[in-house]
Amino acid sequence: MWRNLPLFPERASTIAGDVDGLFFLLFGIAAFFSTLIFLCILYFAIRYRRRPFQPAVPTRNSLLLEVLWTALPVCITIGLFILGSNVFMHARQAPADAVNVYVVGKQWMWKVQHPEGRREIDELHVPVGRPIKLTMASQDVIHDFFIPAFRVKQDVVPGRYTAMWFEATKTGEFHLFCSQYCGTQHSGMTGKVVVMEPRDFENWLAGNTEEPPAKTGERLFDEFGCKNCHSSESGQRGPVLQGAYGKPVRLQNGRTVLFDDAYIRNSIVNPSAEITEGYRPIMPTFQGQLTEEQIMELIAYIKSLTGSAAQQ
Hints:
Elements lengths: L15 H32 L15 H30 L6 E8 L2 E5 L5 E3 L1 E5 L4 E7 L4 E5 L4 E5 L5 E5 L5 E7 L11 E7 L1 H9 L6 H11 L24 E3 L5 E3 L2 H9 L22 H13 L8
Parallel strand pairs: 1-5, 4-10
Antiparallel strand pairs: 1-2, 2-3, 5-8, 6-7, 6-9, 9-10, 11-12
């Protein structure tokens, strides 16, 4: 029924049914109790209206009624919380085999790079039936990556990484929007997601002439002299990065953090914030020298030093 309404686009991802189900459950509960309360008010206003010269009658309290209208909303709220938490956790936890695609938002476009190196602007090509994880950053202001047909959206925030994932269930073209006001041309920051059959997607990727982000990151790693401090032959001026991704890092202040995308980015733009235990704060900041795309490419290279498992 709702497919014929413009407010409800077609469902084209594995999580879309769960999101719609939760929405209609919330809507149904709200509509039921709103109608019930309105009818009760109308009935009581007529049935128990005070007539002329009618003496006041003392009211009686009902303990059962008090318990019911307290316990019933509590049970409904707890049930909705559990259902909503399940949908939320499913939407936040990408499968281990998800393909990691990098996205950079800027006024006013979406720049996409696939792990094979293929780049796109305001378009995202993906295969049907395969989970896709988007690692996203903003080059300027807050944006929001929104695919209505997939029922997924995520803020893209400057200064840190955000992520979301989806698995398309239908081939075709689906609208992509920025749903966070980001400036004068916000309404024009649109695009499309093209879902293809796996064989067609592989053929599309085969036309790629650009190098993978990990390869570009390796070149940047050499160009900016990172290997002078972060390789086994560097004299241990900085932590060795081979095999480090995904492992805990102990800091000088005693805290332990995970060596992940966010930690690497923070170490590049603000190296004095989280200094690894046993090392001096000698690394310079590269803030302003590297674009968000270049930082993502460096991260892709560092992840590749740990093996294929880190690529996801």
